[in-house]
User: What shape does this take?
Amino acid sequence: MPDDMVEAHLTGVRNALSAGWLALSRGGTALDAVEEAVVVMEDDETFDAGRGSFLNHEGKVQLDALIMDGATLRAGGVGCVERIANPVRAARKILSESSHVYFVAEGAERFAAQHGIPLCENEHLVIPREIERLRDYQANLEEHRADLFAPTVSHDTVGAVALDGKGNIAAATSTGGTLNKAPGRLGDSSLIGCGCYADNKTAAASTTGWGEPIMKLVLAKWATDRVAAGNSPEWAAPEAIDYLKTRVNGHGGIILLDARGRFGIVHNTPRMAWAYKTTSQEAAGVVR
Ligand code: ASP
Assistant: This one.
């Protein structure tokens, strides 16, 4: 995250926090809270989710999202959608209205449209900043290959975890994936247990970072399993990021919350925007 993007990221995560909190304070569930928080970040061009996402190799936005309910283990995921501005809304519809868990591409778009989610043109999701970024990246491919985390190559998937008054937890993750990705490439973000997971008996997790290493470790589930084994999220979150680094030389971050309200926020990238709110505390930052 370049210096000149820090304020925008902080504003973005604070707005998401407010939306999630509002949902809870109106009697909504943890699932409602994570959906509303993620929608705010999908609508914010600062983030690599919804409009303003990174472009794939062909200059298109291709989006992935997952939402999961820790109370029932129901989940909804979409992958490689090109005409949905808020893929987490489509994911939520899949969770609540379908016996399937995961839809991709045109099938996901058709399902979304049939369930009242408006479709848009892909051009509506593409912004000039990202056209410029892709052009620069493709013109300097060799240079970028050496350092995937060059400061100019920020990538900021969005995610949220929440605990509601009934003691249920939920998680959601949404992304435009990685810059210059191959069309049809799916990352970790929308895969159950990789970029997102929630189980009341263990924890809710959302991850960000280069998706291929995260996928190989099924990292979100790995972290929640550590909580199942009796560890706190404060301990399991850094362990997960340490495992990502030591096992596959991965870079990323995780937010992890259990049904007792204990949480961990960790990243091994220089920055990751985060925010949290409890009944007694509120904070946000880009370094943790
Ligand atoms: N994990 C995402 C992906 O690989 C990217 C990110 O988190 O920034 O698709």
Summary: The two ends are 14 Å apart (CA to CA). The CA atoms of residues 192 and 238 lie 20 Å apart. The chain has a mean pLDDT of 95.
